[in-house]
Amino acid sequence: MSSIYVAFSPAMQEWGSDVGVSKHLYKGGFTDEDPKDAVKALNDEAYAGQKDWELAGAREVAGLDAATFATRLTERQKAIDPLYYPKIRGAKDIVKLDQRKIEANIVIKRTMEGRDSKVPKLTPALVADFVLDSLI
């Protein structure tokens, strides 16, 4: 079964913060194999010039193909232009996320569930859940 996943690179996030893009840079991916193997392949090929990719979250999906996934990702999240930022070396599926939107989504979701609606500290797992929820 196919899976979608969200990965992040601490070095890329530091670069994004330094150049003023965003520290919330993530890579969305579609794979027919295990997402952990897909992230290992990212590290092996130094995807976007980084070798420290980590898996933030993944979900199995049915009825979704790679083209549909790529379209949904770029429609629902702001992709970084690899021509404008040569540091990312042609990586077209790196997205920058707005921290306020993620926090608002989490607070609304928790409030609707009747839980504490305090703004949480963002972790890669919470961000991955936000991105994956938006793609399904």
Explain this structure to me?
There is one protein chain. This protein is α+β, with helices and mostly antiparallel strands and 136 residues long. It is 42% helix and 20% strand. The chain contains five helices and five strands; from the N terminus they run βαβαβαββαα. A five-stranded antiparallel β-sheet has the order 3-1-2-5-4, sandwiched between helices. The radius of gyration is 15 Å and the shape is globular.
Q: What's this model, at a glance?
A:
This protein is an alpha+beta fold and 136 residues long.
Compile the SSE list and pairings.
Blueprint lengths: L1 E7 L1 H10 L5 E7 L3 H10 L9 E8 L4 H11 L1 E2 L14 E3 L2 H14 L11 H12 L1
Antiparallel strand pairs: 1-2, 1-3, 2-5, 4-5
Gyration radius, to the nearest Å? 15 Å
Number of strands: 5
Low-confidence sequence ranges: none
**Looking at the structure, what is the overall shape?**
globular
Strand content: 15-25%
Write out the strand line-up for the largest beta sheet, numbering strands in chain order.
3-1-2-5-4
Cα distance spanning the termini: 15 Å
Features of the shown structure:
5-stranded antiparallel beta sheet; 5 strands; 42% helix; alpha+beta; 136 residues; globular; 5 helices
